[in-house]
Amino acid sequence: MKAPLYLSFELLFWIAALLLLATTSQPDATAHQDFSLCPLANLGITWCPGCGIGRSLSQLLHGHIQESFRMHWFGIPALLILLSRIFILFKQLFTKRSLIGREKYYV
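Request: output the structure for the sequence above.
Response:
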């Protein structure tokens, strides 16, 4: 049985996202940031519950734990969740088990 295409895409997406966060340069804390990928920030909304998670993950991957926690408290749990998801996808990919099509065994 071949692994579904979405499984491989999701795995590559999360690995690429973590690699990009690990290789980005860290801006100075006092520097003004003009560009943001956050759609709420681009709409002019100043408060967003997710703002800082990407910077927090990047700081964490660079080994700056206190700075990561200062950016967003959910950075450490988010990294653990992403790593567990990557592990699950690797496990499914290498055991060639799929989530789709297994319901026929329950009938």
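The CA atoms of residues 50 and 77 lie 13 Å apart.
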